[in-house]
Each structure stands twice: as structure tokens, then as C-alpha cells.
Amino acid sequence: MSRALVLAAHGSRREKAVNTLVRQIAESIRALRLFDEVAAAFHQGEPGFDEVLDELKAEEVTVVPLFTSAGHFTQVVLPEALARNRRYGEVRLRQTPAVGTHTGMGALVARRVADLMRDHGLDRESVSLAVVGHGTRRHPASRDSTLYLANALRRRRVAGEVVTAFIDDDPPLETLLTTATLPHLLVVPFLIGGVHAAADIPRTLDLARVATGDRRLCIVDQPIGASTGIIELIIDLTRRHTPPPPPRFRPRLVTNIKPEPGTVSLVGAGPGDPKLITLRGLELLREASVVVHDRLIGWELLAEARPDAVLIDVGKGPGHAPFSQQEINQILVGHAQLGQSVVRLKGGDSFVFGRGSEEIEACEQAGVPVRVIPGVSSALAAPAAAGIPLTARGIARSFTVMTGHTAEDAPESSAAFSDTLVILMGRANLLQLTTELIAEGRDPATPAACIQSATTADQRITRATLGTIADAADRDGLVSPVVTVIGAVAGIGSEKAESSTLLMEVLRTRAAPQVLASHQ
Question: Can 316 be counted among the known catalytic residues?
């Protein structure tokens, strides 16, 4: 069944750069080979909302509104225009919420703000962070996502204060100079792109600063749509809001011929870098006719599958589990019983909190041949990538690995006093986990480190103590996947790890923010 993704944006017939940015996002997603077709459509531009489906061949279409808020365009204009397409009744279609309403937007902006403060040498307590939305007095919902984002950033304590303003609503942009009270002003345009972010906001603020004699350092960042992280949110929306699927297993017309069962291979994909999969795992991935993969499997690794391979995403995320474990078992067994070679591709190692034993049991009970290809677990790889040894002579001679996935996974006394404690899947419950460890008697001053997206270009390292690591992770905007290391070894290798992290940040391609020179 062929699938298509449509990015629906407002666009502009006068500002070609706006539509170009949307097409660039579409091209970046197209290169990932997650969809058979990827198209951009515009309210103002070509193709329009009312003709884009007619240019596609796919039978399943997911439409992602590339807007920062819900409102008249996403709730009325776009659905009505899609219904005017000739192929509208022929495709299974699902429209997702606007990308700006994604719950991951707060983490994306928090990371960007942390980067900007570091680059400009700013202390967060001295910064007023301003989130500027477009807004419109014609639709009250247009404000909601901006206010929601501002509240999320306040909860993360990313700056000394967080204020809001709107281009076409109240409070207006000019009021930022009075509502923002701290020595530095950092402005985040909560917009996809266009002249508002590139020219209108800097010009309006600069004129107001001249008129009022405001002498603060004022930084106007790139619009949200120019952030590389926007692609991750778009893809996550498509996974959460897929078109209604056809029956998973259709009855065979010829029932007296039973094919030879295929095989199921549980392959550990490693900690994130696609090059860290084993040679045997890569060999089986390239041969498989069906790949059943988790959410965190990198796109580069999925691109190694055969062009005709069926890719099935069964990944679980925070508050999102499209398939139960029993359904995943049925998918593995069902495809293998049709004579197909199936690879169950898991991050890390299948037997380290990967429920691999349950999948093996299901295959064996069904008489399906199954094999296990070990993978490099992030419990070992993430600390190594951060320059942190799990054991070190005279410092640590043992380590314990535990999951912090649920609130019930509190560390027991034996884990609390292991020389080195490694916590997987514990980002959401980090504060509770560290509080439990301190209650068990572990010194709050114990070194601790969080490693996000280990071994990938998005790797980030936050170092603190057991008593402060949860707050530091919030401050730096860390998001899953995160591996936490607690113990004396977490204080080793700081200089090397921080240098490597800085190098990766320098290598990232970002649009430079605009700095409005203070009038001194």
C-alpha cells in the first residue's frame, strides 16, 4: 500500500522564500524514504490545497498542517479544500493537528534557547525570553499554542522570565520592551517563516528601542520553521495520526497450500549511530522482506532495507503505544507464517529491557524459527560516548543497569549503592528517581550525567550532581532518549566529553539569529 505525506502551509505568492522553505522541508523528508511520495501544498501558491491530492498516486495520504497554531485555516479552509480534490473519495486520508501544537515543541525551543545562551555567554536568570506568535483577532484558538508553549518554557525554567506577544493580536509586539524586565531580551518567532520573522519583528523592536532609549542586548532568533528539529515533529505527527489501515492479514484465496514458514530475526540496532549495528545484523536487515522496527531506529538504518521491504513502525513513545506487545507478537508470527523473512529491529540490544524474550516465546509457540543477533546496548555505549567509564580502578568496580520507564521502577537499596548506576528510559521520572536514591541514603553531591541521543549528531551531555541533575536536564531541554549515569565515574572525562559535544554543535547547520545592537 503506497503512502504519501502532504505538508500544507499558508504560503505566499509574493514572498517566494516562504514557499521555498516548505519545499526544502519536504525535500529533506523525501530523502529519508519514509513515504512513497512527499508533496508541499499551499493556500497561496502551487499546488493549492484543492488540487494536491490529484497530483499523487498514493492510496494513503497523511496531511500535516505546517502552521504554528490551530485556527481557521487548519479547521476550515484546509479540510474544505481537500474535499474538492477529485481523488478525495479514493484515498484513505488523515489530517494531523498543526505542527505548532505538538507537545514536543517546548523541548525543541528549550534546546535552541540553551544553545543561544551558551553561544552568547548569557546567564539564564538575566534573560527575558519572548515567544512571538502571529495570532489573529478573528479566531481565538490562534493564540492557544503560543500561550501553551510559553507556559511549557516557564515550567522548564529556561530563562529568568518568559513573556508573549503577537503580530496581529494582543499584547502587541511593541509591548515587549515594557513587559520584559531583565537585562537581555531573547525573541523566538513562533512562526514557520516569512518576512515577519526576517524583517518585521527586528524592525519593529529596533524602532521601539530607539524611541524608548532601551539599551538592552536584543537577540531575534530564526523562525521555528527553520529549525532542523521541526522535521522530527512532523514525522512523529504522521506516526501518531496514520490513515485508517486495511485489514492486517487478509484470508488467502488458496487454503490447501501452506507456505513454508519464514524466520524471525531479533536484531539489536545499537545505541543510535547506524554504523554501530553489527555486520550480521546489517546483513539480515538488507535481506529481510519485512522490517518491524521501533520508534528510535534512525532513518539512515531503515534506508538499508530492500526497496520492496515492508517497514512496520511499532514504536512506543511517551504516552503513545500504537501496538500492544501482543499485537507486535502477532505481526511477527503472522508475516513469518506467510513465508516471509522478518527482522525485528530494536534499539540497543533486544534482551536489555527490549521484551525480546516475549517475542521469542511467541514465535516458538507458533513453530516459527527465530534467532537473536545481539546489539550494542545504550547502557554501555552512551557513557562511553560521553567519555564516562562505567568502571575505573580505585573508583568503581561494579555497575547496575535499571529502567526508569515507570514511576514504579524506583531503585532498590542494592541499586542505590552500586558503584555506578545506569538508568535507561528514565527521563520523564528523573526527579522522582533521584529523590528515591537520596532517600535511600545516596549522597546528593554524587556526580551525575545525562546523555541524550548518544552516539548520534544530536548527542547532548548535561553534568551535575544527584541532587541537581533533574533540574539541569530540564534547564538544558533534554528529551528522550536519555541515559543517566550516577556515581563517581560521572565526574570523569568532563573536558573530553564537553569538547566533543561542542564540536557536534559547531558542525550543525543553523540559520544565525539576528542581534539588534544595543544603543550604547
Answer: yes
